[in-house]
Amino acid sequence: MTDEITRYSDADLAEFKEIIQNKIQKAQADLDLIKSAYMNDLNNGTDDTSPTFKAFEEGSETMSKEANSQLAIRQEKFIRDLKNALFRVENKTYGICKVTGKLIGKERLKIVPHATMSIEAKNLQR
Q: Is pLDDT larger for residue 116 or for residue 35?
Protein backbone atom coordinates (compact mmCIF):
# COMPACT_ATOMS: atom_id res chain seq x y z
CA MET A 1 0.00 0.00 0.00
CA THR A 2 1.37 3.41 -0.93
CA ASP A 3 1.25 6.52 1.19
CA GLU A 4 1.35 8.79 -1.85
CA ILE A 5 -1.27 11.55 -1.78
CA THR A 6 -3.58 11.36 -4.79
CA ARG A 7 -5.24 14.78 -4.44
CA TYR A 8 -4.98 17.99 -2.49
CA SER A 9 -6.97 18.39 0.73
CA ASP A 10 -10.12 20.49 0.81
CA ALA A 11 -8.20 23.16 2.77
CA ASP A 12 -5.50 23.26 0.07
CA LEU A 13 -8.15 23.43 -2.64
CA ALA A 14 -9.85 26.35 -0.87
CA GLU A 15 -6.50 28.17 -0.75
CA PHE A 16 -5.92 27.53 -4.47
CA LYS A 17 -9.48 28.62 -5.25
CA GLU A 18 -8.85 31.97 -3.59
CA ILE A 19 -5.57 32.43 -5.50
CA ILE A 20 -7.28 31.60 -8.80
CA GLN A 21 -10.26 33.88 -8.15
CA ASN A 22 -7.91 36.78 -7.33
CA LYS A 23 -5.93 36.13 -10.54
CA ILE A 24 -9.17 36.02 -12.57
CA GLN A 25 -10.26 39.40 -11.15
CA LYS A 26 -6.88 40.99 -11.92
CA ALA A 27 -6.73 39.40 -15.38
CA GLN A 28 -10.26 40.62 -16.17
CA ALA A 29 -9.36 44.16 -15.08
CA ASP A 30 -6.24 44.01 -17.29
CA LEU A 31 -8.32 42.72 -20.21
CA ASP A 32 -10.83 45.54 -19.79
CA LEU A 33 -7.96 48.05 -19.84
CA ILE A 34 -6.45 46.49 -22.98
CA LYS A 35 -9.82 46.44 -24.74
CA SER A 36 -10.57 50.04 -23.86
CA ALA A 37 -7.14 51.04 -25.20
CA TYR A 38 -7.68 49.54 -28.62
CA MET A 39 -11.37 50.38 -28.92
CA ASN A 40 -10.95 54.02 -27.96
CA ASP A 41 -8.10 55.94 -29.55
CA LEU A 42 -8.76 58.99 -27.33
CA ASN A 43 -8.65 61.46 -30.22
CA ASN A 44 -11.82 63.28 -29.17
CA GLY A 45 -13.22 62.98 -32.69
CA THR A 46 -10.89 65.50 -34.34
CA ASP A 47 -9.59 63.19 -37.10
CA ASP A 48 -12.08 64.38 -39.69
CA THR A 49 -11.34 68.06 -39.01
CA SER A 50 -7.58 67.83 -39.46
CA PRO A 51 -6.42 69.00 -42.90
CA THR A 52 -3.03 67.26 -42.73
CA PHE A 53 -2.17 63.78 -43.92
CA LYS A 54 -0.77 61.64 -41.10
CA ALA A 55 0.24 58.34 -42.74
CA PHE A 56 3.00 57.52 -40.27
CA GLU A 57 0.78 58.19 -37.29
CA GLU A 58 -2.04 56.12 -38.77
CA GLY A 59 0.33 53.22 -39.48
CA SER A 60 1.68 53.37 -35.96
CA GLU A 61 -1.85 53.55 -34.58
CA THR A 62 -2.86 50.48 -36.61
CA MET A 63 0.18 48.52 -35.37
CA SER A 64 -0.63 49.56 -31.82
CA LYS A 65 -4.22 48.37 -32.19
CA GLU A 66 -3.02 45.06 -33.63
CA ALA A 67 -0.59 44.60 -30.73
CA ASN A 68 -3.36 45.39 -28.23
CA SER A 69 -5.65 42.97 -30.01
CA GLN A 70 -3.04 40.21 -29.67
CA LEU A 71 -2.62 41.08 -25.98
CA ALA A 72 -6.39 40.86 -25.52
CA ILE A 73 -6.50 37.43 -27.17
CA ARG A 74 -3.72 36.15 -24.91
CA GLN A 75 -5.42 37.62 -21.85
CA GLU A 76 -8.74 35.96 -22.77
CA LYS A 77 -6.96 32.60 -23.08
CA PHE A 78 -5.32 33.15 -19.67
CA ILE A 79 -8.73 33.88 -18.11
CA ARG A 80 -10.22 30.78 -19.78
CA ASP A 81 -7.34 28.65 -18.42
CA LEU A 82 -7.87 30.07 -14.93
CA LYS A 83 -11.62 29.35 -15.11
CA ASN A 84 -10.83 25.78 -16.18
CA ALA A 85 -8.53 25.50 -13.16
CA LEU A 86 -11.39 26.72 -10.96
CA PHE A 87 -13.58 24.00 -12.45
CA ARG A 88 -10.91 21.41 -11.55
CA VAL A 89 -10.85 22.78 -7.98
CA GLU A 90 -14.62 22.25 -7.75
CA ASN A 91 -14.20 18.68 -9.09
CA LYS A 92 -11.32 18.05 -6.67
CA THR A 93 -9.04 17.11 -9.57
CA TYR A 94 -7.01 20.30 -9.34
CA GLY A 95 -3.25 19.94 -9.11
CA ILE A 96 -3.06 16.46 -10.63
CA CYS A 97 -0.66 16.24 -13.58
CA LYS A 98 -2.47 15.21 -16.75
CA VAL A 99 0.59 13.27 -17.93
CA THR A 100 2.01 11.54 -14.84
CA GLY A 101 -1.09 11.47 -12.61
CA LYS A 102 1.04 12.75 -9.73
CA LEU A 103 0.42 15.91 -7.75
CA ILE A 104 1.88 19.10 -9.16
CA GLY A 105 4.01 20.88 -6.56
CA LYS A 106 2.24 23.47 -4.40
CA GLU A 107 4.83 26.13 -5.13
CA ARG A 108 4.38 25.67 -8.89
CA LEU A 109 0.59 25.95 -8.54
CA LYS A 110 0.88 29.11 -6.46
CA ILE A 111 2.97 30.71 -9.21
CA VAL A 112 1.15 29.15 -12.20
CA PRO A 113 -2.30 28.25 -10.84
CA HIS A 114 -3.58 27.15 -14.25
CA ALA A 115 -0.80 24.56 -14.68
CA THR A 116 -1.97 21.11 -15.78
CA MET A 117 1.44 19.44 -15.89
CA SER A 118 4.19 18.92 -13.37
CA ILE A 119 7.74 20.08 -14.06
CA GLU A 120 8.63 16.41 -14.60
CA ALA A 121 6.01 16.10 -17.36
CA LYS A 122 7.06 19.42 -18.93
CA ASN A 123 10.66 18.21 -19.08
CA LEU A 124 9.54 14.97 -20.77
CA GLN A 125 8.02 17.05 -23.59
CA ARG A 126 11.38 18.52 -24.57
A: 116
